[in-house]
Design brief:
It is a single chain. The protein is an all-beta fold. The chain is 0% helix and 53% strand. It contains no helices and 13 strands. Strand 10 and strand 11 form a beta hairpin. It starts with a strand and ends with a strand. The relative contact order is 0.32.
Length: 152
């Protein structure tokens, strides 16, 4: 079992999570490496927990079928902590392949740390995000975004 972890400095926001519903699924995008030949797939591969493929010769299903990759549960929220700590965002099981790098190329959302403000449409592709919380009267941000993939 592997986990995608996030470490980030959240200022004025908490509960950062990808927008991921059956109507609007989040596609987790990874660089993939074959576990037997160690070849890295030249293209990024996207996986949604709402899409599954039957496996020939098996009773199971997988969210991605190059070999098999299964997302175990919905993504977890990243909570505000100071100083920033690594937190598991997603757990998945891979067979015959390994996810070696993550690209945050979809929409995320968060809520105000001390207000009920919801911040939809957060993009983390640049590794940072800035906005303004009208209710708090302060700038909010997500900075120093670092993604890692390792054992769960």
């Amino acid at each position: 079992m592997l986990a995608l972890t996030l470490t980030a400095e959240l200022i004025g926001v908490t509960d950062l999570v990808p927008v991921d519903t059956p109507e609007d699924p989040y596609y987790f995008t990874f660089k993939v490496q074959c576990t037997s030949c160690r070849e890295i797939h030249p293209n990024w591969v996207s996986v949604s927990r709402f899409e599954s493929n039957e496996m020939t010769g098996s009773r199971g299903e997988a969210n991605f079928r190059e070999s098999t990759a299964t997302i175990k549960a919905p993504a977890s929220s990243y909570h505000h902590v100071s100083p920033p700590k690594r937190q598991n965002i997603l757990e998945f099981d891979c067979r015959g392949l390994e996810f070696i790098e993550f690209k945050a190329d979809g929409e995320w959302k968060a809520k105000g740390l001390e207000t009920p403000t919801v911040f939809p449409d957060i993009t983390l592709e640049e590794g940072e995000w800035y906005d303004y919380d009208e209710k708090a009267g302060e700038e909010v941000s997500i900075k120093d975004v670092k993604w890692e993939i390792g054992r769960a």
